[in-house]
Amino acid sequence: MEKICFIVAMRAEVKPFIEEYGMVEEPGFFAPLPCQLYKAEKNGCQLFVVLNGQQHGSDLVGCEAASVATNVAIQRLDPDIIVNSGTCGGFRSEGAEIAKVFIGNGAMFHDRRVPGDDEWSTQSIGNYSVWEGSAEMAASLGFSMGKVTTGSSLDMQPCDLEVIKANGGQLKDMEGAAIGFVASLYGKPVLYIKSVTDLCDGGAETIEEFRRNLHAASLALREADRRVIEYLSGL
Ligand code: SAH
Hints:
Layout: E1 3-8, H1 11-20, E2 24-25, E3 36-42, E4 45-51, E5 54-55, E6 58-59, H2 63-77, E7 81-90, E8 101-109, H3 118-125, H4 134-141, E9 144-150, H5 158-167, E10 171-173, H6 176-186, E11 190-199, H7 206-233
Parallel strand pairs: 1-4, 1-7, 7-11, 8-9, 9-10
Antiparallel strand pairs: 2-3, 3-4, 5-6, 8-11
Helix pairs in contact: 1-7, 2-6
The structure holds S-adenosyl-L-homocysteine.
The site of S-adenosyl-L-homocysteine (SAH) has 19 residues, from strand 7, strand 10, strand 11 and helix 7.
């Protein structure tokens, strides 16, 4: 693969990665959108990082910003693959540990409750597929896999958990399925790399656990990103 585009929500998640690759920002590339572009070349590959950007002094997390970033990244950069690299909540009961990195094997939404028939519920859940080489890559690099489950909130309400359990969700985030949705419209493959910052069934306050572990999870993410790039650039 020659053009790899990472879509990332938070600057802190990708800072170690940007520094390692000496990535350079192209200010204003997506103006007037808030998305930010960083570029580098590695092993004959063009690497892009597209950050959702900021508003009100904070990083734009969530589905809306991720959809905008993915759409404009595909239109302007036409990458061979979209890689959503970010943090997530994991379940101890599913083998998650803090700063453990998983590769996604699918992506769904857990907080879109739309009454109607099967077609409406199919749309709500989403169930987007991942790049077809994901499982082979995970096996070859020694990563566990899990299903990304996306919602608009950091907390988890009982009704969210019900949908997550009923549909096999494992890696709880706020962007993954939105990125999967946009990429599916263009027929672009998506690879998910998710590093655990907090345990949804661990009993701790999510935001505190998230903040405590963000740096460690981001360092683990950098290492995983590096190994994935090595793998993808050989394809
Ligand atoms: N910026 C805030 C919190 C970030 S929101 C702060 O530090 O105060 C959480 C971000 O991390 C989102 O981009 C989401 O994708 C990811 N994330 C990590 N753990 C999550 C969880 N348990 N549930 C949902 N998203 C989670």
